[in-house]
Design goal:
179 residues; mainly alpha; 9 helices
Amino acid sequence: TRQVIMVLAIELFLLSLSFKHVNIKLLLKYICAFWGGILLFGIMGDFRTGGERFLELAMPSSDWIYMLPPGVFWGYIYMTTPIANLQNIFLYIPPLNQLHYSISTLVPSFIRWSMFDDISGWNVGDGLLTSTFNVSTFMADFYMDYGVLYVYIIMFFIGCISKVIYHYVKYNTSYASML
């Protein structure tokens, strides 16, 4: 998808910044590549959905600068919609206070439907601002189990694991460690 392509491009950009000495010429190349990527992202999005239809769904405020390339608005929506959806879930769906959603997602869906009942009557989709932009982030399942504190604890452990892996790969440069 376009989102995966953009995430990979951003990751490659950040990796290359961490391994290369950045001079003015390289920085200008990165800036041009960034704006080219934004333009391409918008063109692909408008081609797929249609620019007018997207604006109807995204509902920009009157303050939005329409002179900007459409990719800027597409990128803005892709970055802010998951946060807005998660905030909406925090406000309108009460946590279950039992381990259910975060465990059930570890089981393949065809087995999950027979093993796990929807015990809360709530669905992550109930908290979305709009069903069109349905990215609620994977944190919604953790929230629906035990609330905001559980989300913080899980994100802390994911950060710690990432730091350990980064430290290992940074100081062990063999190809086997990269796999």
